[in-house]
């Protein structure tokens, strides 16, 4: 079945692959191209806003699962897969969580992060095999990411996951897609045709990144990884982050900078340093 907006005759239209609203791009000036891309990009935040009720529904089901030891698996191919891997990879340094709690899987494996892997996304079975290799269980969540909503690698994994009682969600740029049919909570972010026809790395990719930010950040806040508005569990992986953490402790405890820095380095995170100081 092709993914798309249903018409009166029962066919589906892939909105994400409809012709661009602009033509003769090669004849435009750089300024015209940039202005038109920006005009299209402004539509993305509104499309994401319309999807917030579904994002909320998904997050509210993820949090209790993660509190019981569950994980999130992002699954996608091409741009969508890369964005899932990107969001997952930023969780440990930002929130001090192990890299085993939010996991990005991309069709074709790590090679596909930089290079296309022929036919990888067309393998309906491989996604579920990769989830089984990671001992997926019913506390976990599988979130498929595909602008088209038709990627077999993702659909096959979601279908099997759901049949095993595992929560499934998805992020797509087309309504009523085959991928959404396999999701307990489908997130349909309809951004319209791309500036370059079919180039879903553009508006669709931007919207996917925004939604992934929303999902992971809201989950981490709900799991207590943020205090006030600060990343109190961030990894101290460079001088900039040590300085940022030191200033958080100065602000919270009223210590001088060097005292705060020593305390931070002794305990390894802002939260641990503050808790230890207050426990004296």
TrEMBL record:
Q: What is this protein called?
A: N-acetylmuramic acid 6-phosphate etherase
What are the EC numbers?
A: 4.2.1.126
List the active site. 90 (proton donor), 121
Q: Write out the catalysed reaction.
A: N-acetyl-D-muramate 6-phosphate + H2O = N-acetyl-D-glucosamine 6-phosphate + (R)-lactate
Q: Secretion signal: which residues? A: none
Tell me, in a sentence or two, what this protein's role is: Specifically catalyzes the cleavage of the D-lactyl ether substituent of MurNAc 6-phosphate, producing GlcNAc 6-phosphate and D-lactate.
Tell me which Gene Ontology terms the entry assigns under biological process: amino sugar catabolic process; N-acetylmuramic acid catabolic process; peptidoglycan turnover
The taxonomic lineage of its organism, from the top, reads: Bacteria, Pseudomonadati, Bacteroidota, Bacteroidia, Bacteroidales
Query: Is the Hydrolase keyword given for this protein?
Result: no
Q: Which Pfam families match?
A: GKRP_SIS_N
Q: What keywords would UniProt list here?
A: Carbohydrate metabolism, Lyase
Per its UniProt record, what CDD domains does this chain match?
SIS_Etherase
Q: Which family, according to the similarity comment? A: Belongs to the GCKR-like family. MurNAc-6-P etherase subfamily.
Q: What else is known?
A: A lyase-type mechanism (elimination/hydration) is suggested for the cleavage of the lactyl ether bond of MurNAc 6-phosphate, with the formation of an alpha,beta-unsaturated aldehyde intermediate with (E)-stereochemistry, followed by the syn addition of water to give product.
Q: Quote the InterPro entries the UniProt record gives.
A: Etherase_MurQ (IPR005488), Glucokinase_regulatory_CS (IPR005486), MURQ/GCKR (IPR040190), SIS_dom (IPR001347), SIS_dom_sf (IPR046348)
Q: Which residues form the SIS domain?
A: 62-225
Any one GO molecular-function label of the UniProt entry: carbohydrate derivative binding
Pathway membership, UniProt: Amino-sugar metabolism; N-acetylmuramate degradation
Q: Which Gene3D superfamilies match?
A: 1.10.8.1080, Glucose-6-phosphate isomerase like protein, domain 1 (3.40.50.10490)
Subunit-structure text: Homodimer.
Look up keyword Lyase and say if it applies: yes
